[in-house]
Write a structure and sequence with these properties.
111 residues, alpha+beta, five-stranded antiparallel sheet
Amino acid sequence: HEGGAVVEEALALHHRGEAVRHSMVLGRGESIAVEIVVPADAVVVGRSVSEVAADAGFPSSCVIAGMTLDGAVKAPRGATVIERGTELLLVSARADLSRTVEFFLRAAPKG
């Protein structure tokens, strides 16, 4: 079952210490939705959705479909800033799933 493989992949990411909460197969399995919690040290913290989307490393198939912070739903518009602890609902092509999760959870350079 293909959906099981996606869940296993998401759990593997979670077990590496990353904050993947849920995953769901969309359509015939070509797209995947994942919910992540943005860590405090993530490079995307403090950046707007438009800045993040313009980053050269941003997966081209990724869409920020929803955001919540402290239980409040926020519409992911261009000027919306991603804060630590923000829960993001991301949709990407199955082939980009790992790259998408890693993009949002990678730590900012120290120094």
